[in-house]
Amino acid sequence: MSQGDSGTSESRTVGTTSQTISRRGYLAGAGAVGAAALAGCAGGEDDDTLTVGFALPYTGTYAMLGESITNGFELYIDEHDGEVNGREVEFVERDTEADTNRGVDVTRELLVEYQADAIVGPVSSAVAMAMIDTVQSEANSIWFNANAGDYRVTQDGCTPYHFRTSFNDWQTSAPLAEFVYDEVADNVCLAYADYAFGVNSKDFFAEEFEDLGGEVVDEVGAPLGTDDYSSYLGQIEDSGAEAVFSFFAGDDAVNYVNQFSDFGLDEEMTQTGSGFLLSGDTLPAQGDSALGMYSLLHYADTLDTDRNQTFYDAYADAYGEGPNVYACQGYDSAQAFAAAVEETGSSDADDLIPALEGLQIDSPRGPLAFNSETHDPVHNLYVREVVEGDDGPENEVIETFEDIEGPTWGCSL
Amino acid sequence: MQWFTDFFDRSHALETGSEILSSRGRLAVAIAVVLLAVVAPVINVFEPFWLNILVRMLIFALLALSLDFIFGYAGLLSFGHAAMFGAGGYAAALLMREYTQNLFVVLPASIVVGVIVAAIIGWLSVRAKGIYFAMLTLAFAQMFYVIAFTDLPATILDVDEVTGADDGLVGVAGFELFGEPIHQLAGLDHRLLYFYMTLALVVVSLAAIVRLANSPFGRVLQAIRENEERVEFIGYNVTRYKVIAFSISGGFAGLAGGLYVPFQSVAHPGLLHWEISGELIVMLLLGGLGTLWGPMLGAGLVVLVEDLLGGVASWEIILGGIFIVVVIFAPRGLAGILISIRNDPSQALTNARKTLRNYIEKVKG
Amino acid sequence: MLEVFIRSTFLGLQLGMTFALIAAGLTLIFGMMDVINFAHGALYMLGAYFGTVIAGTFGNYWLALLLAPLFVGLIGAAIEIFSLRPLYGRNPLYHILLTFGFAIAIQGAIVLIFGGQSRRIDVPTVLEGTIQVGPVTYPVYWLFVLIVSTVLIALIWIGIERSNLGILMRASAHDTEMVNALGIDVNKVFTGVFVFGAILAGIAGVLLGGSRSVHPGMGMGIIIEAFVIVVIGGLGSFRGAVYAALLVGLVTAYGSVIAPTLTELFLFAMMAIVLIIKPSGLFGATEAA
């Protein structure tokens, strides 16, 4: 399935690596309610194929993230001739629109209608929280959480089917405290998007930072979807802190970072934050405003390893642009799935779970394994600085924290 | 089948020709219901996911029905019906997570909460007319949305969570009776059970609203829609009638919320957002305002189309396009089209041509 | 703290004036044609997107500021002539559905063409950097937006109050048949007003596209805010819309300092109270335009 770099693609419904089912065929198969057509389109019933269901946003703000995760997953399968353990892999892509109720509908559809062997997604943590029950009650498939990082998916959900191939919000915030304290400043102002994920992130950072002896001088929460940060930036400036730790993502990150430098704050204080503040989906719109800012993430496309270079080239070859962290998360979901299926020769969740727990994955991000208590990832975290690259600003890795695990939040599988 | 149509019939002592749902219409509804009930187990075996879609179609049909009663029938355009829908849903979620999953406690509670919220909004709003009423209900519904989204109650009560803020409340499990999941009591698959339960409640609601519409109370509402001043002049308390009608409508919207949230296992602020209210109005107009059955059809259709087009990148363009075409060329909605075809099939083509000619003339000015 | 206050005042005024550009069209269109234009936010978004394309292609911000609103005006004309015009005289409700349809469809079209990613309009070098205003540092571009939108609003104000066109507009809203009888084509006046409103929304899109991210959800995001303004100011009143826009802008700006999460709630409460106590709006007398 060829994929342009625009947010949405033409034939984005059902694709297999070897053939693409036309949209009309799909609609007829999935949709003709009442006409009791008994077309056996449920892939899982057929023992020869493996069905992977994507529950991801393909429209709306997060469309690009959904595309990237899908591209990453499909790239790995394509690299292996569209097969895993000799079985053809079939993809079903369904749009969650990053909406909680759509997320539940889509998850159900993938599990019930398509009998997916594995489900990949979602992007938004609110959707992930809502999916937990459905995954547990509807079927018995592996859930590769390829982006939703809220720790409560582990704390409240704690389901054996859930494997996080992405990160959790502790990992992308707390470890940065050490770097900021040692290298940047011993006092910070926290600025965050005032919703669950933003609050979690700044709390995790603050806790760690204060443990190290640092001081949080002020904190400023802006409602999700704020367009103008002028007043908040005024308060940040007023705090007199030498550095800022932020959690913002998507459009909020673009607005915040751009206005941070529009108002000249970049000359007074050092901006740091979770990696989503400055990632592949925001950097092009942030441009030079982002230069000199530090962030923490489990991936950087500039990572200087052979593994990442191979991945980068293959991805760029296939899709005409370099990979981002989301693509890496999709790719690793495919790696984990393929390795477990190959090891066990089965696609049954009960067989796959122990196999996945013992897996060591050679990821473009570095070594990746799953914590057997929580199924959260164990991987490296990278401190990155935005520097001028050949094609505009890019993230350069300046420090690595190895094999970061984080708390288990009472989950003990 | 006779009992079924009788039930709708019995109430209207007033034999005017304008009653909602003719006996032929009632028969059609009865046949549709029986057909659905018979086909459901078959669907569950071969395409179980379709039952999920059907349940969602039914719940939104109920919601559309509740709005059509107040809007199509009584003439009050509520642009905030999401408030009652969401309130009923949150009530169900809170009860089921904290206290009881008993079906006979949760659903009535959802209805009551819907009625209360509607009574408050209605009492404050019904004096405003037309578009001002719409804007007021919109403002109130958005207030509810913001309150749920920021979890203001938790801040005020100083507890961890009440509405669960932007994540909403998850893990709202299924209904129970006597401490047992009801599908186990009934010996049915949970999906099938939920479908039957929803179908039954939607049918009962439709019957209740039809009876209400054809009752003397309903006649007064209709009269208010046609000429408010005159009804006032005759000596009716128009404001009270409107508030009561709005509250009744809110009860059914609350019920829809109470059915939807446990089915989805999650209550989140999106339920209260104006886009739900807006979409509802779209369902009504698409189906045919004031006919009760039309909006239900419209709701089912919108849910279905959204689901089918969900994976198509340009689904918003298609959906928006459908709205535009319907408004311009079929202002009486699906119901209008069906009625005119039934009344005079031979004229259908001529009518279509006339509509087109009319359109071109108007564009020319 | 003084700095924060001054900065918020600037932001409030700037928001107020740009909101006024958007609300002006909305309220004029309602005042004259009884149309609640749900697609108005989409027109604002189109202005911003056309702006990114023109500024990106020619590397010239000024060209974008000039041309993008005109393209939005063209689209507005098409919407008015081919879909609204055949519907005049029908229940205004149908206009809600119709324009709601356009809002959804336009947003879908933008996603299809540009994808969901954020973009930004590059501002010219003269407008980059910051300027010292009293004790606060303020971006030059934000000040530019404030000045341009204030001048525009002032010009429109004078135009509506003084010119023949303004009188004609007000007359058409007041008594369509009378104006028709005078031999003036009301249809043309309606189209003109709709296009005018669309152009203003387009200008606001380009102006704000230089300071905020441009994304497909921005239209739906601003439409409810614009309704709040139009209602508080009095449906159909231009003057009311300008006052209300300033009020909402300042409340938003100060609110973000005092109680960010409660600001939105406060605005809706304000809207509800105005509707209950004085449905004609806080500033709307009985004037039509």
From TrEMBL, chain B:
<protein>
    <submittedName>
        <fullName>Branched-chain amino acid ABC transporter permease</fullName>
    </submittedName>
</protein>
<feature type="transmembrane region" description="Helical">
    <location>
        <begin position="193"/>
        <end position="213"/>
    </location>
</feature>
<dbReference type="GO" id="GO:0005886">
    <property type="term" value="C:plasma membrane"/>
</dbReference>
<feature type="transmembrane region" description="Helical">
    <location>
        <begin position="243"/>
        <end position="261"/>
    </location>
</feature>
<feature type="transmembrane region" description="Helical">
    <location>
        <begin position="317"/>
        <end position="341"/>
    </location>
</feature>
<feature type="transmembrane region" description="Helical">
    <location>
        <begin position="281"/>
        <end position="305"/>
    </location>
</feature>
<feature type="transmembrane region" description="Helical">
    <location>
        <begin position="103"/>
        <end position="124"/>
    </location>
</feature>
<keyword id="KW-1133">Transmembrane helix</keyword>
<feature type="transmembrane region" description="Helical">
    <location>
        <begin position="131"/>
        <end position="150"/>
    </location>
</feature>
<feature type="transmembrane region" description="Helical">
    <location>
        <begin position="58"/>
        <end position="83"/>
    </location>
</feature>
<keyword id="KW-0472">Membrane</keyword>
<keyword id="KW-0812">Transmembrane</keyword>
<dbReference type="Pfam" id="PF02653">
    <property type="entry name" value="BPD_transp_2"/>
</dbReference>
<feature type="transmembrane region" description="Helical">
    <location>
        <begin position="27"/>
        <end position="46"/>
    </location>
</feature>
<keyword id="KW-1003">Cell membrane</keyword>
<dbReference type="InterPro" id="IPR001851">
    <property type="entry name" value="ABC_transp_permease"/>
</dbReference>
<dbReference type="InterPro" id="IPR043428">
    <property type="entry name" value="LivM-like"/>
</dbReference>
<dbReference type="GO" id="GO:0015658">
    <property type="term" value="F:branched-chain amino acid transmembrane transporter activity"/>
</dbReference>
TrEMBL record, chain C:
<keyword id="KW-0813">Transport</keyword>
<dbReference type="InterPro" id="IPR052157">
    <property type="entry name" value="BCAA_transport_permease"/>
</dbReference>
<feature type="transmembrane region" description="Helical">
    <location>
        <begin position="214"/>
        <end position="235"/>
    </location>
</feature>
<feature type="transmembrane region" description="Helical">
    <location>
        <begin position="140"/>
        <end position="160"/>
    </location>
</feature>
<keyword id="KW-0029">Amino-acid transport</keyword>
<feature type="transmembrane region" description="Helical">
    <location>
        <begin position="61"/>
        <end position="82"/>
    </location>
</feature>
<keyword id="KW-0472">Membrane</keyword>
<feature type="transmembrane region" description="Helical">
    <location>
        <begin position="38"/>
        <end position="55"/>
    </location>
</feature>
<comment type="similarity">
    <text>Belongs to the binding-protein-dependent transport system permease family. LivHM subfamily.</text>
</comment>
<keyword id="KW-1133">Transmembrane helix</keyword>
<dbReference type="Pfam" id="PF02653">
    <property type="entry name" value="BPD_transp_2"/>
</dbReference>
<feature type="transmembrane region" description="Helical">
    <location>
        <begin position="12"/>
        <end position="31"/>
    </location>
</feature>
<dbReference type="GO" id="GO:0022857">
    <property type="term" value="F:transmembrane transporter activity"/>
</dbReference>
<protein>
    <submittedName>
        <fullName>Branched-chain amino acid ABC transporter permease</fullName>
    </submittedName>
</protein>
<dbReference type="GO" id="GO:0005886">
    <property type="term" value="C:plasma membrane"/>
</dbReference>
<feature type="transmembrane region" description="Helical">
    <location>
        <begin position="94"/>
        <end position="114"/>
    </location>
</feature>
<feature type="transmembrane region" description="Helical">
    <location>
        <begin position="189"/>
        <end position="208"/>
    </location>
</feature>
<dbReference type="GO" id="GO:0006865">
    <property type="term" value="P:amino acid transport"/>
</dbReference>
<dbReference type="InterPro" id="IPR001851">
    <property type="entry name" value="ABC_transp_permease"/>
</dbReference>
<feature type="transmembrane region" description="Helical">
    <location>
        <begin position="265"/>
        <end position="285"/>
    </location>
</feature>
<keyword id="KW-0812">Transmembrane</keyword>
<keyword id="KW-1003">Cell membrane</keyword>
